[in-house]
């Protein structure tokens, strides 16, 4: 798919970011993934505990997405065997059991080169993949949530620590924070956001993969200051544990509660998750909290709650080709707007 979109930065983590990156690589060869680094489960949890590295799992998945997506002049099949190798998990019952090859590669390169960003760049160079994968922070982070519904009195909240615990809590997550507080941003990620033509956030685990991106002060400042067009992709359905029972409107409200001065240009939702009528009107008002326009379309893979990369890419391309207030994405004469004040 040919497009005039220039540099794209995609923020998220896990399977949601994988879908976004697959879509964005259809539009640009200059895609940078900025990935959350708070995972404390499975192979990632073991490696961060034993080696002190940032959890590599979501970073590995982002690399795999950019490798497998291909580009306009690049058949995806050429790298399939290497993608499969990076994603391959060792079996058995020994020390390697459950570790993906890509996690071990990233951990080893980080120890060898002394820096996670250098290690990530080395992997991208090794496989000849355009773009970059960067951590949200160069230090491993922890998520702590305030959760209600775990006590007899529903007004009482309890603190739940750890991404896995937050994702699987039977209670209702009200708010999350990162530990250490005010964590350092990855300088390269901040630079990429400043230089971008398009910045996209979501979909993904809302409290553990999406909201953390607005909880790193330097990164939030970059998101507020960038001249890029900013798009927010909302999940197709509630996620068991983190957002059980959440409507699209509530997804937007809880993000706004964590960063009430964060602004985006476009909020993009699937038609099936925001039916026309009163419910969609509520979503439109929630989008306005970010200074954004609401865009609704058919974005899901049939019969699933997974974004279809081709449909997502098509909607983004359509929006970016539209003339809005006399400017287009990447235009140097883009006028200032109210959503960039403050």
TrEMBL record:
Matching CDD domains: YvcK_like
Compartments, as annotated in UniProt: Cytoplasm
Keyword annotations from UniProtKB, A to Z: Cytoplasm
Principal location listed in the UniProt entry: cytoplasm
Family annotation (InterPro entries): CofD, CofD-like_dom_sf, Gluconeogen_factor
Coiled coil (residue ranges): none
Annotated function: Required for morphogenesis under gluconeogenic growth conditions.
Classification via NCBIfam families: CofD_related
Family recorded in the similarity comment: Belongs to the gluconeogenesis factor family.
Name recorded for this polypeptide: Putative gluconeogenesis factor
UniProt organism field: Williamsia maris
